[in-house]
Design a protein that fits this description.
7 helices, single chain, disordered N terminus, seven-stranded mixed beta sheet, about 45% helix, about 190 residues, alpha+beta
Length: about 190
């Protein structure tokens, strides 16, 4: 099912089906007006809080509280200003799962998350930074970012992460909007 949303219009849904034990849902969120490197760091923490770590808000809300998915997560792509939410949802639960995902996005923008959840996301990012020198791939990615995109140093990132507030997360959350998506609805083959 293809989904597209223009500003505040209702999402349009076109369904595709496949014989499978679950449905696959991907939502693309556009992130508007991110100009400063500081905001990219804040968005990285926002992503961890939303769906980028095992104890994220999407996992709590969609899976643990409502038992609507097998997995769910989000990925922030800073180079093109998008955030992707992927999930394997229970067959027939698309409407409810989408509603909860949208509510989770809204809740973050209104500050409906705890300081402990924010601290967990910040600690996860700090731990990721501490692991940069553990693999050649991480080192190459870091050096590439520094050289090509003039990204911040590890020390600069650490200092910024430690200063991120709930208000910072709320501010960047308001810039995230679902714009398109895809649902491959699973259907039971009767076996």
């Amino acid at each position: 099912c293809f989904i597209h949303q223009k500003s505040k219009q209702k999402l349009e849904v076109v369904k595709e089906t496949n014989v499978a034990s679950q449905s696959k849902l991907s939502l693309v969120c556009k992130i508007c007006d991110v100009k400063e490197k500081n905001e990219q760091i804040i968005l990285s923490v926002y992503n961890l809080l939303l769906g980028g770590m095992s104890n994220c808000l999407l996992m709590k809300n969609v899976r643990e509280k409502n038992n609507l998915c097998y997995h769910i997560g989000s990925y922030y792509y800073r180079l093109d200003g998008t955030l992707i939410i992927n999930s394997g949802i229970t067959i027939g639960s698309f409407d409810k799962a989408l509603e909860i995902i949208k509510k989770t996005l809204d809740d973050i923008s209104f500050g409906k998350f705890t300081l402990k959840e924010l601290e967990n996301a910040k600690m996860e990012y700090l731990a990721d930074l501490a692991r940069i020198d553990e693999s050649n791939g991480n080192i190459c990615e870091y050096v590439y970012g520094r050289e090509v995109f003039n990204s911040l140093s590890v020390e600069e990132k650490i200092n910024l992460i430690k200063k991120i507030t709930k208000e910072d997360i709320m501010r960047v959350a308001k810039k995230v909007q679902i714009v398109t998506g895809y649902l491959l609805e699973g259907v039971d083959n009767g076996i």
